[in-house]
Amino acid sequence: MHNLPLGPLMVDVSGTQLSADETTFLSQPAIGGVILFARNFHCRAQITHLIDEIKSIRSPSLLIAVDQEGGRVQRFKHEFFALPAVYRFGQAYQQDPKSARHLCHAAGCLMATELVQVGVDFSFAPVLDCANLNSKVIGERGFHEQPEIIAVLAGAFIDGMSDAGMAATGKHFPGHGGVTADSHFTLPVDGRSLDQIAECDLVPYKKLAKTLRGVMTAHIQFPQIDIDPPTFSAFWLDKILRQEIGFSGLIFSDDLSMKSAHVAGNTIDAVDRTKRALQAGCDMALICNDPKSAARVADELGKSWAANQPRLLAMHAKSANRITETEIAMLKDQVSLMAMN
């Protein structure tokens, strides 16, 4: 095991077990975390072993992340509880706000408990985007259309995650719900003013800034505000998120291999995009599903880019033993009843 500070890159691996080359790659100084996908998962025993393998490579251990939001974005399914899309909680809120908050807390706690038990440090959750059923990328991934209700429900979800020992990451800053295009394939353009964004999309971030440990950026262009999309914008990340909102946690870029990141970064070169994101204020840059680019970036950065260790280390999961099996069963019953109604 290598004693090595965590680096500013989060990367992925190819399958259900590590190759020798991947073990060597994850030992590079620039690497700080690994994001897991459905292709990495077969069952609980297998994913636990894979995560143990990754964490045994270096100390402090690499951060392990996954997208386990619920609904259509849930990477681990077999032997894991099928979480409903969080828009269902927003619908429940319209009928019974107190019950909806309770259910959100239960869902956050259940999601986090199951992940922490197998060694995952955090899920990139909750989504703080305003729900937009016309959006190709957001849809039912958002809690509600109204930002004040999003803050209430996401706050309860975050509290549940925290009870299970998991730090929360809000996404996609400053807000993806105002556009319909999917940023995986094109660069969405949002023509609203800063005042309009502040009165809507930024509300959950303002209300939850002290409880979020992480924030993930959006690959969206806001031409009335700044020509550079948030991932590459010091205006958005430093002036708005750090200074005005007061967020002090870890800033993640969204995946820099997405088509929108190529356009937003004005370059097809992954090294340039990564450096621009880090220079703008991202603490950790994600490069997924592009191992050749990830290898080039890791090699180029080497030890030259010192990552913020306190922010990175704060994302490690805490105790996995806070929630008993009986309590887990009760949480599943609560959320299952809601999903059936």
Any key phrases for this structure?
alpha/beta, 3-stranded parallel beta sheet
What number is the mean pLDDT? Answer: 91
Shape: globular
Tally of domains: 1
- What is the count of β-strands? 12
According to CATH, the homologous superfamily is Glycoside hydrolase, family 3, N-terminal domain
Number of H- or I-type helical stretches? 13
What's the end-to-end separation, in Å? 50 Å
**Beta-strand residue fraction:** 5-15%
Overview of the molecule:
Helix content is 40%, strand content 11%. The protein is an alpha/beta fold. Helix 3 runs antiparallel to helix 4, helix 4 packs across helix 5 and helix 4 crosses helix 13. Strand 2, helix 1 and strand 3 form a beta-alpha-beta unit. Strands 8-5-3-2-12 form a 5-stranded parallel β-sheet. Strands 9-10-11 form a 3-stranded parallel β-sheet, with no helix packed on it. Strands 1-4 form a two-stranded parallel ribbon. The protein is built from 13 helices and 12 strands. It has a single domain, classed as Glycoside hydrolase, family 3, N-terminal domain (TIM Barrel, Alpha-Beta Barrel).
List the helices and strands and how they pair.
Elements lengths: L1 E2 L5 E3 L8 H6 L5 E6 L7 H12 L2 E2 L3 E4 L1 E3 L2 E2 L12 H9 L1 H22 L3 E2 L23 H17 L5 E5 L20 H6 L3 H6 L5 E4 L16 H11 L5 E3 L6 H6 L5 H11 L4 E2 L4 H11 L7 H5 L11 H16 L1
Parallel strand pairs: 1-4, 2-3, 2-12, 3-5, 5-8, 9-10, 10-11
Antiparallel strand pairs: 6-7
